[in-house]
C-alpha cells in the first residue's frame, strides 16, 4: 500500500513578493569632523584651487591668445608652428611642474596632521 501525498500547490511568480513596504531608516547625520581634519580639508582645497587656477591661467588662455592675437596662430619658429609648439610641446612641462608642486603641497599638508592615536 502506497500513500500518496498531495502535490504542493503550484505558484506563479511574476514580480516582487507582496509584503508590506518598510519605511527607510532615517538618514544618519555625518559625524562632526575634528578641527585637524577640517583644517586639512580646507588646506587641500586651497592647494587644489591654486593648482587649477594656475593651469587655467597658463594653459587655458593659450587658445585665446592664438585666436585674438593677429598672426600668433600662423607664426613659425624654426619651421614649426608657434601654436603647435605652445599647445603641443610647451604645455606638458608646465602641467608637470604644476602637478609636482601640487603633490608636494598635499603631502606637506598631510605630514602636518598627527596620525590617529598620536598626541599633537
Portion in strands = under 5%
Number of strands: 2
Number of helices, where a helix is a run of at least 4 consecutive DSSP H or I residues: 3
Poorly predicted runs are none
Terminal-residue CA separation: 85 Å
Can you walk through the features of this model?
Strands 1-2 form a two-stranded antiparallel ribbon. With 120 residues, it is mainly alpha-helical. The N and C termini lie far apart (85 Å). Helix 1 packs antiparallel against helix 3 (82-112). The longest helix is centred in the last third of the chain and has 31 residues, at 82-112. Helices cover 53% and strands 3% of the residues. The relative contact order is 0.10. It is built from 3 helices and 2 strands; from the N terminus they run ααββα. It has helices at residues 35-60, 62-68, 82-112, and strands at 76-77, 80-81. Strand 1 (76-77) and strand 2 form a beta hairpin.
Amino acid at each position: 500500500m502506497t500513500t500518496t501525498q498531495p502535490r504542493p500547490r503550484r505558484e506563479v511568480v511574476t514580480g516582487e513578493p507582496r509584503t508590506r513596504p518598510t519605511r527607510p531608516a532615517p538618514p544618519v547625520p555625518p559625524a562632526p569632523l575634528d578641527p585637524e581634519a577640517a583644517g586639512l580639508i580646507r588646506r587641500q582645497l586651497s592647494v587644489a584651487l591654486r593648482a587649477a587656477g594656475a593651469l587655467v591661467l597658463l594653459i587655458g588662455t593659450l587658445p585665446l591668445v592664438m585666436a585674438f592675437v593677429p598672426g600668433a596662430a600662423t607664426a613659425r619658429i624654426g619651421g614649426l608652428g608657434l601654436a603647435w609648439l605652445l599647445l603641443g610641446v610647451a604645455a606638458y612641462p608646465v602641467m608637470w611642474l604644476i602637478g609636482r608642486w601640487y603633490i608636494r603641497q598635499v603631502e606637506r599638508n598631510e605630514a602636518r596632521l598627527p596620525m590617529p592615536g598620536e598626541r599633537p
